[in-house]
């Protein structure tokens, strides 16, 4: 797959602003490109063999956004359009026009819109903006190792919120600014200093429970491999929390008594959620929000799910104790 390269020809005659999309990350089947000057990103399949996976994620993201987007502390990126250059197919979900407009907005999606990307299937969605520089610098000064700071490591652009894990001191000089981890202790310490920019850890745990419940019982997905992250807010010098990465989600039967697929997905994820231990204060907040965020008819299964993850966590803890 060819990669876009920056050059002097990437600018308009009257501006030095780059116009070629810039690679900002990659996963198992796709690469993410940002669009200079716009609050959108493109997710481009590594090869045509990955086109179906990209299309499936596009559809899943649209479904979750449509059904679960609310006033939650966590934002859901919006999927705008899917494009397959092999078939010239473009499928888009246009924005709803403001009420005062007499006609809807014109579509900006055509083959030329995607022309500067690699020649593979892709979709365009909202971007989780980079962290504000002041907060990124604060994180770097507090949590990067001396080796990393001495090597000139960039401050983080996005942080994963690992509320179910305790992180040790960072020793490496190698930092991935697109995926810097924050556990509860580090996040809480940061909040103590930046209360105008951040939400307390209790609200974050509550938001995680709310969003997981909505993905399960409203959208009907297992939420496998979704990520809870802190990044920047578009057009504002502050932070915003997001739920991202929907490619591994699978549809579930919301009426089934067997919640094991949800339990498996919960523990397969990185440890974003507070560990399901009934006496843990943050988990209590998470669990209450999880139950409260689904409809009355789903609450029995929601409670069954919580009991199941608590039982598995207890078994894991017991096995660890025996090993010691």
Characterise the protein shown here.
The chain has 324 residues and is an alpha+beta fold. It folds into two domains: 8-126, Phosphorylase Kinase, domain 1 (2-Layer Sandwich), CATH 3.30.200; 128-324, no CATH class. The chain has helices spanning 51-68, 133-143, 146-150, 184-193, 201-219, 260-268, 281-292, 299-323; strands spanning 22-26, 30-34, 40-45, 74-75, 79-84, 89-92, 122-126, 159-162, 180-183, 227-232, 239-244. The strands form two sheets. Strands 1-2-3-7-5-6 form a six-stranded antiparallel sheet, covered by helices on one side. Strands 4-11-10-8-9 form a five-stranded mixed sheet. Helix 1 crosses helix 5 (201-219) and helix 6 crosses helix 8 (299-323). The longest helix is centred in the last third of the chain and has 25 residues, at 299-323. It is globular. The N and C termini lie far apart (49 Å).
List the helices and strands and how they pair.
Blueprint lengths: L21 E5 L3 E5 L5 E6 L5 H18 L5 E2 L3 E6 L4 E4 L29 E5 L6 H11 L2 H5 L8 E4 L17 E4 H10 L7 H19 L7 E6 L6 E6 L15 H9 L12 H12 L6 H25 L1
Parallel strand pairs: 4-11, 8-9
Antiparallel strand pairs: 1-2, 2-3, 3-7, 5-6, 5-7, 8-10, 10-11
Helix pairs in contact: 1-5, 5-7, 6-8, 7-8
Task: Characterize this entry briefly.
The chain is α+β, with helices and mostly antiparallel strands.
Features of this protein?
five-stranded mixed sheet, Phosphorylase Kinase, domain 1, disordered N terminus, 2 domains, six-stranded antiparallel sheet, alpha+beta, globular, 16% strand, Znf_prot_DUF3669, single chain, 11 strands, 324 residues, DUF3669 domain-containing protein
């Amino acid at each position: 797959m060819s990669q876009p390269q920056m050059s002097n020809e990437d600018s308009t005659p009257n501006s030095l602003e780059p116009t070629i999309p810039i690679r900002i990350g990659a996963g198992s089947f796709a690469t993410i490109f940002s669009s200079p000057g716009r609050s959108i990103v493109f997710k481009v399949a590594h090869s045509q063999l990955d086109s179906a996976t990209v299309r499936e994620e596009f559809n899943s993201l649209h479904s979750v956004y449509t059904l679960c987007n609310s006033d939650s502390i966590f934002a859901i990126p919006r999927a705008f359009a899917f494009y397959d250059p092999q078939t010239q197919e473009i499928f888009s979900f246009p924005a709803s026009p403001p009420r005062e407009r007499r006609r809807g907005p014109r579509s900006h999606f055509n083959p030329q819109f995607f022309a500067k990307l690699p020649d593979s299937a892709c979709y365009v969605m909202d971007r989780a903006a980079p962290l504000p520089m002041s907060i990124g610098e604060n994180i770097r000064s507090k949590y990067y190792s001396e080796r990393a700071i001495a090597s000139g490591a960039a401050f983080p652009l996005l942080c994963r919120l690992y509320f179910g894990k305790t992180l040790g001191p960072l020793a490496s000089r190698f930092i991935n600014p697109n995926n810097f981890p924050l556990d509860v202790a580090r996040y809480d310490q940061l909040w103590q200093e930046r209360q105008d920019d951040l939400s307390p850890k209790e609200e974050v745990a509550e938001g995680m429970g709310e969003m997981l419940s909505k993905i399960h019982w409203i959208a009907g997905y297992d939420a496998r491999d979704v990520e809870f992250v802190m990044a920047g807010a578009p057009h504002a010098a502050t932070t915003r929390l997001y739920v991202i990465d929907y490619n591994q989600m699978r549809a579930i039967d919301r009426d089934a008594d067997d919640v094991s697929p949800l339990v498996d997905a919960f523990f397969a994820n990185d440890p974003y959620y507070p560990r399901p231990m009934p006496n843990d204060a943050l988990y209590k907040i998470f669990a209450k929000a999880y139950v409260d965020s689904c409809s009355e008819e789903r609450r029995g299964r929601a409670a069954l799910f919580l009991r199941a993850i608590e039982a598995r966590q207890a078994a894991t803890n017991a096995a660890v104790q025996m090993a010691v």
